[in-house]
Amino acid sequence: MSESGTKQTLGEVRLKVAYKKPEDLLSEYTRSIGRGGVTLHTQKSLPVGTRFVFELHNPGLAKPVEVLGEVVRSTPQPGDRYLLTVKYDPGQDRGGLDTVLQRIFDLQEYEKMRRHARIPLNLPAAEEETPFAPLFFVRDLSRGGVGLEVEAPALPTSVKVGMPFLLEMELSLGTLMLHGEVAWTSAGGAEVLPTFGVNFGTLRPDTVERLEKLLTLAAMPPPPWRARICFGIDAVMRMP
């Protein structure tokens, strides 16, 4: 990732960022939209209501993917600096987003090891029924399964191959409940967090429809994005 430039006009700040891979661009897009906003340290105060346009570029894209933002708070900081709170909005123009999604699907179409193309999500998930459980992150999602990362030095004992699994999240279309079982695990290492993958079971038609909408980012949940996961008997009892 490399910042290509910043341009400011009256009431609007436009920032251009370039990404070598379409997956990296989409990962940053979902991370930004999922958080719902960002705080920026600046040397100049900007009035509340100032608009930001973050242009995410990838070589070969006719137009960038845009993330819109608006300054909702400007707080003075020591040393003549300011802390800006910017609220994100995915915007209405999907031209660039649809193009980068299609590019990712096309690039992954001929992968022999995978049946379905994956998209990055950057979605925090919690195992709410288990006290002191670590935080999980949904890193990628496909029609056939999901990959997760665990913010812990080791995988929890509940994460083992064959264990029933359920992921729940709220979309603009309603609740999405994806059930399956753990298909593989990786213990991680000194600088790599533990990860695991889940294969989905047979999903209901309405669940498939909602999943398809999410995979094209057409039914995103309201920010900040959150999900709930559970394993074992808890997952089985909650499965639709």
UniProtKB/TrEMBL annotation:
Q: Which residues form the PilZ domain?
A: 13-93, 114-215
Q: Which SUPFAM superfamilies match?
A: PilZ domain-like
Quote one Gene Ontology molecular function term.
cyclic-di-GMP binding
A Pfam match: PilZ
Q: What is this protein called?
A: Type IV pilus assembly PilZ
